[in-house]
Automatic annotation (TrEMBL):
It comes from Haloferula rosea. This is Efflux RND transporter permease subunit. GO terms for cellular component: plasma membrane. It comes from the Bacteria. One of its GO terms (molecular function) is xenobiotic transmembrane transporter activity. InterPro entries: AcrB_DN_DC_subdom (IPR027463), Acrflvin-R (IPR001036). Keywords: Membrane, Transmembrane, Transmembrane helix. The chain crosses the membrane at residues 20-39, 346-364, 371-389, 395-418, 439-462, 474-497, 539-559, 873-892, 899-919, 925-946, 974-994, 1000-1023. Coiled coil: none annotated.
Length: 1038
C-alpha cells in the first residue's frame, strides 16, 4: 500500500477498497433478506396484557353479600401491590369479577412476575372468603389479543347433532390444534357440559321419609374411587381398590336407599337416571343459523402467522373426515387472510412509494445521481430489517407504516451527499477529494438533522402503555431507518457517489434533464432574484411563510377531536343485551329471530354468534368481558365488501332498534387503538348505591339526550326482582329448622346435589341428584317443596306451611373502582360521530349537577384514553426537546440560529394542521403523532440552508444576493427531498385509503411542504434579520 493511501482518512476506506465495499453491500443485503424471512408477522401489534381478571363464584349470594364477603377482601389484598393502576370490580348475584389494570410501565417481559404476585395475594385472601364461595379463578390470558383461527364444529346441512356430540368433537379438535407447533392457547366456546342426572320424585321420597340429600349421600358413599391400601409382599407390592365406582347407569340404579323387613328400595325405584347437558347451559353458539361449538386458537407472538395458519388449517381439514355424517368443521375466521392482505397493501405501498421516489430523483437530479441514490433504499431497508429483528420487532401494519414514513426521509441524506459529491466533481475535484470534502462539510449538519429527526420520533417509540404497544413500532421503525440511513450515507453511499458520480463523455448526447434533472440556470436565476427580494426585506419573507402557518393554527380549533378512527375491515360486531334477570333460553330465542333477519340480508355473508358470553375475539382490541351473562349475545358478522360495512352498521342499527325494542342493540365497527368499554363514559363515585343510582340516572339522561348517542346505560341501575322467603320463626323452630338449614335445603332442592362422578374413557362427568323441572321452574312448584324436620322433631313441613314467598327488589349489580362504589354511565355513539366532542358537550351539561359531599364525577371512555396517551407522550418530551435544542446550538454554536430552527419546527406544524383542514380530517391522536415527528423533520432542509449560508463568506456577512444565491444553489436537493417525502406517502393516500393512515400521512406531507417553503423563504430572511442587522454585508473569514 502506498504512503498516500496509508494517509487517507478512515471515512474514505470504502471508497478506496472496492472489495470491502462490495462485500459489505452483499452482507447487508443478505442480512436484511434473512431477517425478513425470520420476522414474526401479524396484522396488528400485540398489546401487552396488563388486564388480568379474577372471577369468584358464590352461588346463591346476593350482589351486596358478594361485594362485602368476596369483592372487598380481594380488593384489600390487591392494594398492597403498587404496580396495580386500577381495580374495577362488579359484584352480581352469585359472582364477583375483578378487572385489574397494571401500570403502563409493566411490559411483556415483566408482566408474569406481577401476575405471580397477584396470584399470591389472591390466594392469601381466599382464606378469608365464606365457606360457600368457590376458589377465586385468576385469568391472565384474555387480554387485548385476537385469536388467530376460529373453527366452527356444527351440523352438516339439515342434520341436527346434539350439542353434547358437537362438544366432544370440538374438544378433540382443540387437542389437535394444541399440538400444532407454535400454538399459544386454544379454547372452546359454546360447548355443553354433560352430566348424569338422577331425577327423583318428591312425593315418593316423602313417603319413604327420605330427602334429596339422603339420595345424594347414598350415591356418594357407593362411588368408590379412592385407594384402599396395598399388600406389601416380600417381592411385590399389590394395590387394592374396592369395586363399585360408577361406570354405567345400571350401576347407579342398583344403589340401595332403604332396606327394611326384607324389602329393598333402590335408586331406580324412585328416580330416573339419564345422561344430559347441565342446565341451564352457560353459553350457546350459532354459525349461519346452525348450533355450533367454536374452537379458537391463538399463535405465539414469536411465530409467523402465515406459516402457523397453514398448519392449523391443514389440521382442521384432516379432522373433517373423522367427524362422520351430519357434522362438519369449518374455519370461520383466519387472521392470516387479513394479515396477508394488510401487509400486502402496505408492502405494495412501500414498493410504489420507492418507485415514485426514484422517479422524482431521476427528474430532479438526473439518471446518474438516481443510480447512486437507488442503492440507499434497499440497503437502508435491509439494515433496518436486520436491526429491527435483532431488537425483537415484528412485521405488522404499524412497523411497515413506520418504514413508509422513513422511506421519504431516509433518502434525504443520500440525496444531499450525492448532490454535494457531484457538485465538487463538476467543479474539477478528484473523486476522492470530492468525497472527503463532502463528508467533512456535511458530517455535522447531517448528524444534527438526523438526531433531531430521531428525537422527534422517540416520544412515539418510548410511549408506554397500551397506546405505546399499538403505535410504538412506528417510532421504532423510523428511528432505526434514520440511523441506518445516516451511517450508510456517510460510508457506502458517499463511496458509491465518488465511484459512479462522474459523467462520461457519451452522456453529453443525452437530454439535459437525464443528465442533470429538470430545471436549469434560468430557474436558478429566477429563484435567486425572488429570494434576493425576500431576503433584502426580511419581514416580507417571514410574513409570507408565517401567515399560512398561523392560519393553520387558527383553523385547528374548528377540527373535531378523535382518538383513533374505526377500522376498515369487512367484519363488524352486533351485541344484544336484555335485562339482567333474563334466562339464556329467552336470549337464544331472540337471537335466532335476529339471525333470521340477518340471513335475508344480501350484503352479509356469514354470521357467528355466542349467546351467554362474548364471541371469541377476532380483533386485537376486542375485549371478552361477559362471562356467564345469560342476558347477553354477541356476533361477528362478515360483509360482502369492507366498503359496505359503514352503511350496514347504520341501517341495521336503525332497523333493529325499531324491531327489537325489548333489547339494547349495538351494531358497531371494530375500533383502532387500546380497548375501551364505551365511546363515552362518566364515572360517579360515592358510598351509597341509592344515591349513585339517582345521580347516575340524571347523568344517563344527559348522555342519552345527545343526538349522536344511540344508547346510554348505568352499571348500578334499577333494582331487580328477587323472591324472598319470609319464614315464620316460631313454626320453623318448632320443626327444629333454623334459617340457615332452610336455605341449605332450598338450595339443594332447586339446584341439586353432587353425588359422585361417572368415568367414560378419559372423560369424567358429574352425577347430580335433583328434582324434576316441573318442581323447580315455577313459584307454584317451589311452594310444594317439603322441608325435613330436624333430628328430634317429627315429619315433614311444606315450604308454604312455614312461611311465605314475596317478590321484592334487590340491587342487581354493584360496581367499584379502586375500592370505592362507582356508577359507570356508558354512552354508545353513532357510526361516524366523534365521541370526544360528544363527551365535551355532555360534560358542559353535567358539570351543573350538584353532587353531595363525598361524591365525585370523572370522565372516562375515549376522552380519558386520549388524555392519558397525550400525557404519556409528554413524559420524555422535555428531555428530548432540551437535547434537540442542545444539538442545534452545538452544531451552529449560535443560540439565534438554533432559535430560527426551532421557529421552523413550530411553524411547520401549522402547515400540517392546514393540510389536515384541507383534507377534511379530524384532529386525532395520529395527527398529534405526526406533528411531533414533523417538528424534527422540518429541521432537515433548514439545517442544510443555514450550513450553506454559514460556509459562504458573503452570505454569512448578510449580503442579500449572496444569501439568495446560496439558498438557490441548494434548491435541487431541497426540492428533491421534499418531493421524495411526498412521493412516499402518495400511494398510501390515493390507493389504500381507509380512515387510519390519512391523519398521520396528511399532517406529515403538509408539514414537509411547509418546511421547504420555510427553508427557502423564512430561514434566509430570519437569518439576515437576527444575525446581520448590525453587520456590514462584507465578506468575513470562514
Amino acid at each position: 500500500m502506498s504512503e498516500d493511501r496509508q494517509k487517507q482518512p478512515w471515512y474514505l476506506l470504502f471508497f478506496h477498497n472496492r472489495y470491502l465495499l462490495g462485500v459489505t453491500l452483499v452482507l447487508i443485503a443478505a442480512a436484511g433478506w434473512a431477517s425478513y424471512q425470520a420476522l414474526p408477522r401479524t396484522e396488528d401489534p400485540v398489546i401487552t396484557n396488563r388486564d388480568p381478571m379474577v372471577l369468584t363464584y358464590f352461588p346463591g349470594a346476593s350482589a351486596e353479600r358478594v361485594e362485602a364477603q368476596v369483592t372487598e377482601p380481594l380488593e384489600t389484598a390487591l392494594k398492597e401491590i403498587a404496580e396495580i393502576k386500577h381495580v374495577e370490580s362488579t359484584s352480581r348475584a352469585g359472582i364477583s369479577v375483578l378487572a385489574i389494570e397494571l401500570a403502563d410501565e409493566v411490559n411483556a417481559d415483566t408482566k408474569e412476575q406481577f401476575f405471580s404476585r397477584i396470584r399470591d395475594k389472591i390466594g392469601e385472601a381466599s382464606r378469608l372468603l365464606p365457606s360457600g364461595a368457590d376458589e377465586p379463578i385468576f385469568d391472565g390470558r384474555r387480554g387485548a389479543v385476537a385469536f388467530t383461527l376460529i373453527a366452527a364444529v356444527r351440523g352438516d346441512d339439515d342434520a341436527q347433532p346434539t350439542t353434547a356430540l358437537l362438544s366432544r368433537q370440538a374438544e378433540e379438535l382443540a387437542d389437535r390444534l394444541r399440538n400444532v407447533p407454535g400454538t399459544d392457547i386454544v379454547r372452546v366456546y359454546g360447548e355443553a357440559e354433560e352430566e348424569w342426572t338422577v331425577t327423583v320424585d318428591d312425593a315418593e321420597l316423602t313417603a319413604l321419609g327420605l330427602t334429596l340429600g339422603d339420595v345424594a349421600r347414598a350415591l356418594r358413599i357407593s362411588d368408590s374411587k379412592q385407594a384402599a391400601g396395598a399388600v406389601f409382599g416380600k417381592r411385590h407390592e399389590l394395590q387394592i381398590e374396592v369395586s363399585g365406582s360408577f361406570t354405567t347407569a345400571a350401576r347407579i340404579r342398583e344403589i340401595p336407599l332403604v332396606q327394611k323387613d326384607g324389602l329393598s328400595v333402590r335408586v331406580g325405584d324412585v328416580a330416573e337416571v339419564s345422561r344430559s347437558m347441565q342446565t341451564p347451559v352457560s353459553s350457546l353458539g350459532l354459525s349461519d343459523g346452525a348450533p355450533t361449538v367454536f374452537v379458537a386458537a391463538r399463535v405465539s407472538a414469536d411465530q409467523r402467522v402465515d406459516l402457523w395458519s397453514d398448519k392449523a388449517r391443514e389440521t382442521v381439514e384432516r379432522f373433517q373426515p373423522e367427524l362422520g355424517r351430519g357434522m362438519r368443521a369449518d374455519v370461520v375466521f383466519d387472521q392470516e387472510v387479513y394479515t396477508s392482505a394488510r401487509l400486502g397493501e402496505l408492502g405494495g405501498n412501500l414498493f410504489l412509494g420507492a418507485l415514485v421516489v426514484m422517479a422524482v430523483v431521476v427528474l430532479t437530479m438526473g439518471w446518474r445521481s438516481s443510480l447512486v441514490i437507488s442503492f440507499a433504499l434497499p440497503l437502508t431497508a435491509a439494515m433496518t430489517l436486520f436491526l429491527f429483528a435483532r431488537g425483537g420487532g415484528e412485521l405488522h401494519q404499524m412497523s411497515i407504516f413506520g418504514m413508509i414514513i422513513a422511506l421519504g426521509l431516509l433518502i434525504d441524506n443520500a440525496i444531499v451527499v450525492t448532490d454535494e459529491v457531484r457538485k465538487h466533481m463538476a467543479a474539477g475535484m478528484k473523486a476522492a477529494d470530492a468525497v472527503g470534502a463532502t463528508l467533512r462539510h456535511l458530517f455535522v449538519p447531517l448528524l444534527s438533522s438526523t438526531l433531531t429527526s430521531i428525537f422527534a420520533f422517540m416520544p412515539i417509540m418510548l410511549l408506554p402503555g397500551s397506546t405505546g404497544d399499538f403505535v410504538g413500532s412506528i417510532g421504532t421503525s423510523v428511528v432505526i431507518a434514520l440511523a441506518s440511513s445516516l451511517v450508510l450515507s456517510l460510508t457506502l453511499i458517499a463511496a458509491l457517489a465518488g465511484r459512479l458520480g462522474a459523467n462520461r463523455p457519451w452522456e453529453d448526447r443525452l437530454p439535459r434533464f437525464l443528465r442533470h434533472g429538470l430545471g436549469g440556470p434560468g430557474l436558478t436565476q429566477a429563484t435567486t432574484r425572488f429570494l434576493t427580494i425576500t431576503t433584502a426585506k426580511p419581514l416580507l419573507g417571514i410574513s409570507m411563510t408565517a401567515v399560512l402557518s398561523l392560519v393553520g393554527f387558527g383553523l385547528a380549533s374548528t377540527l373535531g377531536s378523535q382518538f383513533f378512527p374505526r377500522t376498515d375491515r369487512d367484519m363488524f360486531v352486533l351485541e344484544v343485551t336484555l335485562p339482567s334477570h333474563t334466562r339464556i333460553d329467552h336470549t337464544a330465542a331472540l337471537t335466532r329471530a335476529i339471525d333470521a333477519r340477518l340471513e335475508s340480508h344480501p350484503d352479509i355473508t356469514h354470521r357467528n354468534w355466542l349467546i351467554g358470553g362474548s364471541i371469541p375475539s377476532v380483533y386485537y382490541n376486542h375485549l371478552m368481558q361477559n362471562d356467564g351473562a345469560a342476558n347477553f349475545a354477541q356476533a361477528f358478522l362478515k360483509a360482502e365488501r369492507a366498503d359496505d360495512v359503514a352503511r350496514l352498521v347504520v341501517e341495521l342499527q336503525d332497523e333493529f332498534d325499531q324491531s327489537f325494542p325489548e333489547a339494547r342493540m349495538l351494531v358497531k365497527k371494530f375500533a383502532q387503538g387500546p380497548p375501551i368499554a364505551a365511546d363515552v363514559e362518566f364515572r360517579l363515585s360515592g358510598p351509597s348505591t341509592d344515591v349513585l343510582r339517582e345521580l347516575g340516572e340524571e347523568v344517563r339522561r344527559e348522555v342519552a339526550r345527545h343526538p349522536e348517542i344511540l344508547h346510554a346505560t348505568t352499571s348500578i341501575n334499577r333494582d331487580e326482582p328477587k323472591l324472598w322467603y319470609q319464614a315464620d320463626e316460631d313454626l320453623a323452630r318448632a320443626a327444629g329448622l333454623s334459617p340457615g338449614v332452610l336455605a341449605e335445603q332450598l338450595e339443594s332442592s332447586l339446584r341439586g346435589q353432587q353425588a359422585g362422578s361417572m368415568i367414560e374413557g378419559v372423560e369424567t362427568m358429574p352425577v347430580t341428584v335433583r328434582y324434576s323441572d316441573e318442581d323447580r321452574d315455577s313459584v307454584t312448584g317451589v311452594r310444594r317443596i317439603n322441608f325435613q324436620a330436624a333430628e328430634g322433631a317429627t315429619g315433614w313441613a311444606p315450604l308454604s306451611a312455614l312461611g311465605t314467598l314475596e317478590l321484592m327488589p334487590e340491587v342487581g349489580s354493584i360496581t367499584r373502582r379502586d375500592g370505592v362504589r362507582t356508577n359507570n354511565i356508558l354512552g354508545f355513539a353513532r357510526e361516524g360521530s366523534l365521541p370526544i366532542e360528544i363527551t365535551r358537550s355532555v360534560t358542559a351539561a353535567v358539570e351543573q349537577l350538584a353532587l353531595p359531599v363525598g361524591y365525585t364525577l370523572e370522565v372516562g371512555g375515549e376522552s380519558e384514553n386520549q388524555n392519558e396517551a397525550i400525557g404519556n407522550l409528554g413524559l420524555y418530551l422535555p428531555v428530548l426537546v432540551l437535547l434537540t435544542i442542545g444539538i442545534l446550538i452545538l452544531s451552529f454554536r449560535s443560540v439565534r440560529m438554533a432559535a430560527i430552527l426551532i421557529a421552523v419546527g413550530g411553524l411547520s406544524v401549522g402547515y400540517g394542521l392546514l393540510a389536515t383542514k384541507f383534507w377534511g380530517l379530524p384532529l386525532s391522536f395520529n395527527t398529534i403523532l405526526g406533528s411531533l415527528g414533523l417538528i424534527g423533520l422540518a429541521f432537515n432542509d433548514s439545517i442544510v440552508v443555514l450550513s450553506g449560508i454559514r460556509a459562504n463568506p458573503k452570505a454569512r456577512a448578510g449580503a442579500p444576493h449572496a444569501i439568495a444565491a446560496q439558498v438557490a444553489s441548494n434548491g435541487r436537493h431541497l426540492t428533491s427531498t421534499t418531493l421524495t417525502t411526498m412521493g412516499s406517502f402518495l400511494p398510501l393516500l390515493l390507493l389504500i385509503g381507509g380512515d387510519f393512515w390519512p391523519p398521520l400521512a396528511v399532517v406529515l406531507a403538509g408539514g414537509v411542504i411547509g418546511s421547504t417553503l420555510l427553508a427557502f423563504l423564512f430561514v434566509p430572511a430570519a437569518y439576515r434579520l437576527l444575525l446581520c442587522r448590525k453587520r456590514d454585508p462584507q465578506p468575513s473569514p470562514a
